[in-house]
Predict the structure.
Amino acid sequence: MSVRISRQHWQALLDELDDARRQRHLLTYRALIERLDLPTPAMQTLTAALEHLAALDARAERPLRSALVISQGASRLPRTGFFDCVMRLGRFSGASDGVAAASWHAAEVVRVFEFDYPVDV
């Protein structure tokens, strides 16, 4: 199944992630879905957009902005699919629910916070 995001929603996603980066805070999937007012299937649309953004960032050798989006759960980590995606991109290897994932994610978040992304991306 192919999921598409409108140009307007894509730009709003980039703006939300940029705000979060500048304020040095994380966003939950639910908060992003609500802020972006994504149509159903909202989670699949958001996930596909975040994976696409991760691929763009990886290709440009930048920290992955999609790391700023986490689950509401106690882990405060992204969903398992995020780690599947970053493994496919060659950025992480290991279990998606272990200490290695948590420490890799924490380091990636710091890298995102400290990176100046070009405005046109």
Summary: The chain has a mean pLDDT of 93. Strands lie at 27-28, 69-70. Residues 25 and 86 are 21 Å apart (CA to CA). The longest strand covers residues 27-28.
